[in-house]
Every structure is written in structure tokens, then in C-alpha cells.
Amino acid sequence: MTYADFFSDIKGRFxxxxxxxxxxxxxxxxxxxGDAEGIFYVEVKDGAIYVEPYEYFDRDAxxxxxxxxxxxxxxxxxxxxxxxxxQKLKVEGDITKALRLNELIKSKGKKx
Length: 112
Description:
Layout: H1 3-15, E1 26-33, E2 38-45, E3 48-52, E4 61-66, H2 67-74, H3 80-85, E5 89-93, H4 95-98, H5 101-106
Parallel strand pairs: 1-4
Antiparallel strand pairs: 1-2, 2-3, 4-5
Helix pairs in contact: 1-2
């Protein structure tokens, strides 16, 4: 899998999230290591979600892991907290905001 293929797929998954009830600004950077290596960010701002293939310097949290780990998390097949505890995912930054990633994953398909 190339980074372009991975990013296209992961962006589609995140864009399904209903963030209309999230009033807090959230910004996450994701560092993919191994196959499909690259960087992207997810930002929730003013009731909208943005997913772009760039580094985000003013992020709340940064996640580092393999592409397959991110795909499992984005598809709801792997809990992000479990991924951290089993060392499949590394998190740096504001842990409280990092935990809100689960809200984004669980809100998929609930867009109004």
C-alpha cells in the first residue's frame, strides 16, 4: 500500500465522522511508520472536520504507529486506548484531548 492509497482511504473514513456536537478545537497529527510512511492531520474546528496530508505544528496530540493500526482504529476494529496499552500506538501531547479520538471514531455514519 502506498501513502497516497492509505491517505485516500483514511481520509474517507474520518470524513464520515459527525463532529457537529464537538465545540472544542481538536487537532491531531498522525505519523505513519513502516509501509505507507507519511504524516497527516485531523482537525475539528467550528463543527467541521478537516483531514490533510501535512504536518500540524499546533497540534493537541500526536499519534505514531503503523498504517494497519490506524486503519483498524479508523474502522472501529481496534480501540485506540487498547492500541496504546499494547504499544501498537504511541501518543504524545494532551492525553485528555487524545482520548477524544474515540468520539470521532464512534460518531462515524451518524452525520445529520
